[in-house]
């Protein structure tokens, strides 16, 4: 894949779940089917879900750095248009603060709960066509929702 003034790039075996295109930006949405529990990093820095019963379930997607390549393909296809990546988890999945340090986020993107969509998290990026268009430097970055302060990531071996 060529474009955007950059060299070729291949998706390889990666996939893109959902892609939202507008006139001036794009959004890759990677929907994750996590279970109820707390999502974060274990003491070794690997992605895990600690289920409500204390069972530890590895979450290899949190350790995946290929999101940057997937974004690079869309960047090339849209002739250098800027965009976003978001990993969406069910509302029953709590986000531990360590999620902010995961490999999948290192080059941008957010891990968010489904309620963030309903609460309008992406409204800052996608404006109604009937309203004023705000592009480029007029956009303001907003931090992802803060995790519940009482959430602690506890790891129990299987």
Structure, explained:
By secondary structure, this protein is α/β, with parallel strands linked by helices. It has a domain at 18-124: Ribosomal Protein L15, Chain: K, domain 2, CATH 3.100.10. The protein has helices spanning 67-77, 114-118, and strands at residues 18-21, 26-31, 37-41, 47-51, 56-58, 83-89, 93-95, 110-113. A 4-stranded mixed β-sheet has the order 1-2-6-8. Strands 5-4-3-7 form a 4-stranded mixed β-sheet, with no helix packed on it. β3 and β4 form a beta hairpin. The longest helix is centred in the middle third of the chain and has 11 residues, at 67-77. The chain starts with 17 loop residues before the first strand and ends in a 40-residue tail after the last helix. This is NERD domain-containing protein.
The assigned CATH architecture of the domain at 18-124 is: Ribosomal Protein L15, Chain: K, domain 2
What fold name stands as the CATH topology of the domain at 18-124? Ribosomal Protein L15, Chain: K, domain 2
Question: How many whole angstroms does the radius of gyration measure?
Answer: 17 Å
Order of helices and strands: EEEEEHEEEH
Instruction: Report the end-to-end length measured between terminal Cα atoms.
Output: 43 Å
Helix/strand-derived category reads alpha/beta
Proportion of beta-strand residues:
15-25%
């Amino acid at each position: 894949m060529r474009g955007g003034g950059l060299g070729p790039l291949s998706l390889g075996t990666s996939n893109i779940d959902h892609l939202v295109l507008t006139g001036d930006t794009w959004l890759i949405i990677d929907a994750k089917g996590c279970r109820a529990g707390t999502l974060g990093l274990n003491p070794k820095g690997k992605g895990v879900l600690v289920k409500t019963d204390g069972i530890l379930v590895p979450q290899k997607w949190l350790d995946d750095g290929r999101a940057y390549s997937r974004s690079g393909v869309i960047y090339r296809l849209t002739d250098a248009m800027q965009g976003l990546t978001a990993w969406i988890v069910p509302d029953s999945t709590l986000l531990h603060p360590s999620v902010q340090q995961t490999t999948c986020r290192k080059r941008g993107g957010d891990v968010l709960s489904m309620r963030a969509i309903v609460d309008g998290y992406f409204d800052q990026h996608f404006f109604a066509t009937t309203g004023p268009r705000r592009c480029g430097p007029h956009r303001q970055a907003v931090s992802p929702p803060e995790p519940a302060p009482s959430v602690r990531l506890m790891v129990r071996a299987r």
